[in-house]
Amino acid sequence: MTQRILLTGATGFVGHAVSRRLLERGDQVTALVRRPQEVVPGVTEWLASAGDFADVEQCSPSTLACDVVIHLAARVHVMQDRAHDALAASRETNVEGTLRVARAARRAGARRFVFVSSIKAVGESSQGREPLSELVPPRPEDPYGISKLEAERALTAFGRRSGLEVVIVRPPLVYGPAVRANFLQLMNAIARGVPLPLGRIEARRSMIFVNNLADALLHCATERRAAGELFHVSDGHDLTVSELARMLAWQLQASGRFLSVPPGLLRLAGRLTGRSAQVGRLLDELRVDSRHIGDALGWRPPFTVEQGMLETVSWYRATH
User: Fold this and answer.
1) Residue 80: what pLDDT?
2) By its UniProt entry, which SUPFAM superfamilies does this protein fall under (predicted)?
3) Distance between CA atoms of residues 293 and 295, nearest Å
4) What pTM was estimated for this model as a whole?
5) pLDDT tens digits, residue range 160-215?
6) What is the per-residue pLDDT for 237?
7) Tens-digit pLDDT profile for residues 236-263
């Protein structure tokens, strides 16, 4: 059965993938945006121009009706956050803004709210432990992770009071065509033949291809059994940092200059340069246990890591 979907974050690369997946299914998609922007053709725009969704409860169209919200919009994690109070700024967007959208959507008839959180709500590493399951006690370490966990809890409480079905999804790093940030920087460096100290980094990192994430979110929006659930999602095949770099080099047809620097030396360099957190994200494992969504909903990633990387590299080679 097709549904009326309200989507936030629709102009980002994840939002585009989710929009396309919903439209393929035949759903009616309305994007909540701050300014008229490029959305996927076939998506209707709802303009709420104030930051942090401050005006969303006042400017909702009288004709708006929705069945499900998929909430992607967030104040994202950045390495050098220049906000005077990064935690307060993250809370205003990721907690208060999320609740404003939930209240407006509930008044518009929404019965379910799919909240795209982050594995950072649990922590930065699975080092020395099994892959992180939904049962691991959360210990977020930065303003982004803290605010995402607080949003999960606030939404869950709102759902209990209002009857809104809340589904929480925690992805790890998302990659795919139009990816930005660190993943794009890595591809740029490999394509240019920049020597990188990645040859001996055996830490495994879970990731998820953007079209796998879009498919998982569709299941969370439509499956009756998803109501009230918390899901960790990934591609199900965790590469080491070294394997990831070599796969990208092979698909980019680049030489791939990967230096075999001992991890201990990299950690020392991180401490001396004040970049311990960045180095730790390279050297520490962050593996996600995504079996629960398979057991509960029968979901399996429709694309392999190799397919996801190939689509990402094909986009990169066509645009750079």
Assistant:
1) 52
2) NAD(P)-binding Rossmann-fold domains
3) 5
4) 0.93
5) 999 999 999 999 999 999 999 889 999 999 999 999 998 888 989 999 999 999 99
6) 94
7) 999 999 999 999 999 999 988 898 988 8
Give residue limits of the domains in the chain.
Answer: 4-174+209-236+287-302
**Rounded distance between C-alpha atoms, residue 269 and residue 273, angstroms:** 6
- How many C-beta atoms lie closer than 10 Å to residue 228's C-beta? 13
Distance CA 278, CA 270 (A): 8
Q: Helix, strand, coil proportions of the chain in percent (round to 5)?
A: 45, 15, 40
| Residue labelled with tokens 């299914």 | 25
Q: Which amino acid is at 245?
A: A
Q: Are 306 and 212 in contact (CB under 8 A)?
A: no
Is residue 309 a contact partner of residue 247, using CB atoms and an 8 Å limit?
yes
**How, if at all, do strands 68-71 and 204-205 pair?**
unpaired
Give, as one character, the DSSP assignment of residue 288: B
Which residues are bridge partners to 310 per DSSP? none
- The catalytic residue positions are 144
Residue 231 main-chain phi, psi, to 5 deg: -130, 130
Checking 54-59 for CB contacts under 8 A at 24+ apart, the result is 54/97, 54/100, 56/32, 56/100, 56/101, 56/104, 57/100, 57/103, 57/104, 57/107
